[in-house]
Amino acid sequence: MLMKKVLLFIFFALGIVWVFVMASLLPRRNLPENSQWDLPRNEDALLNTSGINDIQYSPDGTHLAVASAIGIWLYNLNSDEAPVLLTTDTVNVYNVSFSPDGKMLAGGHGEELVQIWDVNTRMCKKIFMADHGRNLRVLFSRDGKTLASSGHHEINLWDVATSTHKKTSNSYVHFANRMFINGDSGTLASVDSGDTIGLLDIVTREQKKALKGHTRNVKSVAFSPDGRTLASGSWDRTVRLWDVATGKQKKVLKGHRMGINNIAFSANGQMLATASRDNTVRLWDTITGKHKKTLKGHTAEVSGAAFSPDGQTVVSWSNDQTVRLWNVNNGRFKTALKVPKF
Length: 342
What we know:
Elements: H1 2-25, E1 52-57, E2 63-68, E3 71-76, E4 84-86, E5 93-98, E6 104-109, E7 113-118, E8 124-129, E9 137-140, E10 146-151, E11 154-159, E12 164-167, E13 178-182, E14 187-191, E15 197-201, E16 207-211, E17 218-223, E18 229-234, E19 238-243, E20 249-254, E21 260-265, E22 271-276, E23 280-285, E24 291-296, E25 302-307, E26 313-318, E27 322-327, E28 333-338
Antiparallel strand pairs: 1-2, 2-3, 3-4, 5-6, 6-7, 7-8, 9-10, 10-11, 11-12, 13-14, 14-15, 15-16, 17-18, 18-19, 19-20, 21-22, 22-23, 23-24, 25-26, 26-27, 27-28
């Protein structure tokens, strides 16, 4: 009997040791060692998300929204509170857009769904169902009255106040996943799968102008804050500035060694940031068209970039799974953040 008890104890002890050994051999998630990223309280990039599709500052610079595969992370940059995850049953969010007053946040999901969240209460206020598949892009007009989403074969427009849905003509839109709205002139710029940019009248839903000049696919478009200039970035490695009123090309910005994925104007319209497949972000003077600085540090192509509202910081995100903050004045990066993989 004693020998039997001893043998049972030995087997039990060996079982416990085996469990601990196997647990130590299991792969661990690549999580940051310090959950606060060793950043001071006012640093504008406390990020903790599982992959990034889009990042946008609120107009007043108090919040940062991160579109990710598990929802929208909303950060209050004026406090140490933990970020809030805005999510529903449909989690994958491709794109986010703040309303001009910063009170609402729209997210374009992987389904036929657009959600609008109240930034203060963090509650979902409205849900719009689109007629197309993935909402790759959602955007408030600059006057805040219209919300647009783009997807396969069409662009959908909603009246934000009444939730009334209006659909644009899809006669020329093949895959309108790059678009921007100029609220002052009622003009929407969109790009299909080619090298031509279409300017649409939001009211009549008719194409006003076709901007031609790029030789490869256009990947990003953006209106200047005053609505007079449209910038476009293409995989032909150029950025082109267009006169919105006439449709004529104003300047061609050259310097990237590979195609351009994303472009963004500063709040005063005097600078343009371009994110490229060559692993860099370039800053340009929009008045002279001259290159000002090259932001180097990413080890893979840069997916996007955005200016802080005060124009002093550029945030960039890359396929190297990092988010970097850069000082606009000297071109130096403030910090590089490792994005956890889940």
